[in-house]
Amino acid sequence: MDSPAGTAQSIIELDGVRKCFGRQVVLDDVTIAFPQNATTAIIGPSGAGKSVLLKHLVGLLYADEGRVSVFGTDMASASTRQLYGIRRRFGMLFQDGALFDSLTVGENVAFPLEHHMPQLSEEERWVKVAEKLGWVGLPGFEKRSISSLSGGQRKRVGLARAIIMEPEVVLFDEPNSGLDPLTSDSIDQLILDMKDRLGITFIIISHDIIGTIKVADYIGMLYEGRLVEYAPTKNFIQSHIPVVRSFLRRNIFGPRDSLNQRKQQAPEQS
Amino acid sequence: MADFVRASWNRPPPTGQVMAEAYRIGVKSLPVLLIIAVFVGTNLSLQGYNAFKPLGGQYMVGLFVSMAGVREMAPVIAAAMIAAKAGTEMATQIAVMRIREQIDALEVMAVDPLWFLVTPRLLGIALVLPALTIISIFATLLSAYLVAVWQLGLNGAQFLSFAREGLAPMDLLYCVIKGLCFGIVIAVVGCFFGFKAGRGPEGVGRATNGAVVTMSVVVVFLNYFLSELFYG
Ligand SMILES: Nc1ncnc2c1ncn2[C@@H]1O[C@H](COP(=O)(O)OP(=O)(O)O)[C@@H](O)[C@H]1O
Ligand SMILES: [Mg+2]
Q: In terms of domains, do A189 and A71 share one?
C-alpha cells in the first residue's frame, strides 16, 4: 500500500515492517508512507500495535524485518548522532504527557530549550514558553505544579513541550484517551488549531474514530498487527473492508461502547 | 555501558544535580545510619567484653571494636543503609519514569537518559558514601567507648590506645575505597534495574526488589574480595 496522497511527498516511510516481542507478532508486514505537511491518523483497537508503530518512527523501537526510513535516513543504520539529529526534528505528545513531576509546568515546557538552545537567555526562554502555553490554552500556567493539573491539561502541557523546538513532525499517542467527552472534543479542537497555525506533519494514533475523522486528512487502520486500510479520510469512512466497517459502526453508532472503552482506560491513568 | 561511559565523557556532568543528589542521599540517610552505627558500637563493646573476659583480656576490647567494627562492619553497614534507602529510591524513581514514558520522552527530546539520570546519581553517591562510612566509623567507636568506660568500667585511655592499633590511617583509606566501590555498585545496579523495569506498576515493585537484593549480594561479595586484597 502506498501513500494515498498521490503526489504529496512523504518524509517517513515504513516498508514491510515486522516487529515481534518474543513469540507475539505485533506488527506484521506494515508498509505505509506518511505524507508531508498533512495529518495522518492510525486507528485501531487497543493492543493493535499503534504505539509500537509510533515508536519505530523515532528509534525507540527497531523493526525485526523491513525498513523504516525517516527524512531519507534508514533508521536501522543511523548512527547515534544521526538519530539524535532526526529526533530533534520531532515533537511527541505521550499518552499521559510524560511530564517530569519534579519540575513546574514552565520548566517542563522549557526543558528541550535548556538542553538544545543554551545560548538563549532566561528571558528569551520564558517568552517562548509563555507563547506556547498561550497556544495550548494554558496562559500563565508556568508556575503550576504538574500534580495540580487535570488529565486534559497535562496533554496540553505535553503538546506545548512537543512544539517548543519548532519540530517538522509532531507525533500524538492517543491524544483523547482517558478524557471525558467534552475535554476530548476540546483536545481535537486544539489539534485543529495547531494544524492551521503550524502547517506541519502530524501523525496521530487513536482508538477514537470520531475525533480522528474531524482532524485527519488520511486514516489508516491497524488490526492485529496489519494495516488493513489506508486512505484519505472521506474514502476511509466509506471503506468496504469488513473490520473497518465494524470498527466504524461500533465507534460511531455505539456511543455506549466507546464510553465503556473510556471507562476501562480511566484507571490506567492514575 | 560503553555508550554510557562515552556519553558521560563527552559532556560534563550537571554539577548542580550531582551536588543535589549527594546532599539528598547524605542528609536523608544520615540519621538512620547514625542510629545503626551507634548501636553496633554498643554491642561490639558488650560482646567483645564477654568474649575476652574469660581469657582475662577485656582490656583489649578497643582492638576488637576497631578491627571488627571499622575494617569490616562500617563500610558494609553504611553501604547496606544506602542501598536500602538511596539505592531502592533510585530503582523506583527510574522505573516509574520508565513506565510513565518519561525516559522515552527524554530520548525523543534528544537528551541522553543515561547522562541525565544516571551520571548525577552515580557521582552523587560516589561522593557521599565514603564520607558516610567515615562518619559511621566514628559513631561506632564513640558509642563503643562510652559503653566500655561507663557501663563496663574499662580504662578509657587503654581502650583508645588499643583502638588506635586496629585503626591505622591506611585502614581509613581502605574504608574510603570500599565506600567508593560500593557506591558505584549501588548506583549502577539501582539505575540498571530501574531502566529495565517491566511494564505496569508490578514492574516498579519488581525493579526495586531485584535492585536491593542484587546490590546487597554484590556488596558483600565485593567486600570479601577487597578485604582479601587489602589485608590478605
Ligand atoms: N516493550 C514491549 N514489550 C513487550 N510487549 C510489548 C511492548 N510494547 C508493546 N507490547 C505489546 O504489543 C502489543 C501492542 O501494543 P501497543 O502498540 O501498545 O498497542 P496499542 O495499539 O494499544 O497502542 C500489546 O499486546 C503489548 O502488550
Ligand atoms: Mg497505545
A: yes
